[in-house]
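Hi everyone, sorry if this is the wrong subforum. Our group has a chain we'd like a structural model of before ordering constructs, and none of us has done structure prediction before. Sequence below.
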Amino acid sequence: DFQLFDGGKPQIISRFSVEEAPQPAPSPTPAAPRGAPDAPQPAAPVAMPQRYVALVIDDLHTQFGDLVWARQAAQRFLAANGNNGERFAVYTTSGQNNIDFTSDRDALNKTLLAITPREKSSNDCPQITYFEADRVLNKDDTELLRILGDELQACRDQTYTTDEKNYTVSENARRVLMEGDWNTRQTINTLRAVIGKLATMPGRRSLVQISDGFLLLDEHRPEEMSLMESAIHANVVIDSLNSAGLRAYVPGGDASRHGSMTPEAQRAKIRYDQEGDDAAAAALDETARGTGGRYFHNSNDMDEGIKLLAGAPETVYLLGFAPQNLKFDGRYHALKVTLRDPKGYTIEARPGYYAPNHAADPAEQSKEEIQAAFFSTEDIREIPATMEAQFFKTGPDDATVDILARVDIKQLNFKQQDGRNRNDVTVVSGLFDENGNYVAGIQETLELRLKDETLATRLATGMVVRSSIKTKPGRYLVRVVVRDAEGQELSALSKAVEIQ
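Answer:
Right subforum, don't worry. Here is the predicted structure as tokens:
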């Protein structure tokens, strides 16, 4: 049904899978306490989460009324969505009033209620926006400089020379430019930190940014591209909700504007306000499109926007292909996905990718594959491997989880060198709590240098790797990943553990 193009050239879709929206489901049978094989099995814990949604509220660039409407819509959405297969977190660009991934709707609601705009109401004369400051100082906009100078003279009700007006406006613009630059960089850094957090969550990952928009200047573009690349590598989709909704522009500005302006100046100010808002909104659009997400804007229906962006898609199709003759030049490749028979459907897909700057280093590639498999819930069975998990309590609030990974090495590929069979097998074992937060992990690499007779003996018994992790009572997901160096194959397994 699908067609995929890389730089306009059709590609062979070599991998295809379908992901359905997460549904509450019984968990795997929990592990029994060690030493009590005949004891009755406790009731299965609730299903482990399969999807993680981070709500990032931009309290640095969002006006009070817009933030309140969006915040209330988020509260209503969370109250109506109690799916055990999902976890939500709330973060702000100011870094205040954050809560990590949790199923506690009351805690999420309390955090949302505490969020207020950090945008300072200005009594400056004249009032200068970040967009206007950039136009005056970096774009040498003499028309805007003159308009702001006239506004300065009107609101202070005194006479200035042209040089005095230009100097005062420029100094004010310089301060606004510094503040605006800090706010923009703080927003980008927050989004990058949330992406980093999402990258450690074992399941599908989505980031929903709620903002009136933030201005990206030319010097911010490399950071924006790096942000989108980090989201793509972490399999994080960024969706954007423009909380400004439908804007209305009042001639001469609202009641907060000082002084009076000529009709010509009023029209010019409206034009600058519109251009500034459009430029700020473009950042929301670009980060969404650049990661295969959605951009909800030009609507006051915040409930519909939150539902559309934060709700789980009913179906997601994953297409994979191997680029032919790919050059290691770091160049951007535009992707396009179409339907052979559209039937009125539209497609939202990742728009492109960047070619690597160098050939993949085997060690680096192995590390990335293991990390991607570990922070996932997908079962992969390329290597014949099994996993067992048992626990024993060492105190009322202390326990140890024993994880046993057994590998049937008969199916592994060995390299013959110096009369020995060589292969390196890496085993990573770890725990995630019931909200999907990473707790602890252990990595062990076994360097196999086996003689033929030793290998023949091991063929019958296999290989066992034991890992022990200390933790507290609670519900956990045990995750084990096994990868061999010679065959470059991988298996990933999960098991639920409940320690009471």
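For your construct planning: DSSP finds ten helices and 21 strands in the chain. The first helix runs from residue 64 to 80.
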